[in-house]
Prior knowledge:
Elements: E1 3-7, H1 13-22, H2 31-40, E2 43-49, E3 52-61, E4 66-74, H3 83-94, E5 100-103, H4 110-115
Parallel strand pairs: 4-5
Antiparallel strand pairs: 1-2, 2-3, 3-4
Helix pairs in contact: 1-2
Amino acid sequence: MNIIYKDIHSFKKEDLQRLFLSVEWSSGHYPEKLVIAMRNFETVYTAWDGEKLVGLICAMDDGIMTAYVHYLLVDPEYHRMGIGRTLVEMIKDKYKDYLRTVLVAYDDELHFYKNCGFTAAEKSSPMFITKLWT
């Protein structure tokens, strides 16, 4: 299997929908919105197996100090192949001169991110307002 990594912002909605639903993320139910979101992110790196989108990471930043990793997802069929780690390394390289790269991780993902060089905040917790569209 030959995974190709790309820096792109333009997607077919079906590719994004399939990938997001493969990891059971509700965002996958809004593929038209995902297409627009990917165009608007500062950074989007992807992993492809031929024509199949199998991984994605994206970030937004202030241009000089702080970058926020918003999505990292890898199709479960492609887990444990180094795709997620490669995508994280691409983001870390892009933002290596920034003061801080921030992400929100679920508890079951902490081990992965710690192995990628991230540390958990000691005195803060992520907070959300989530709107479900109908």
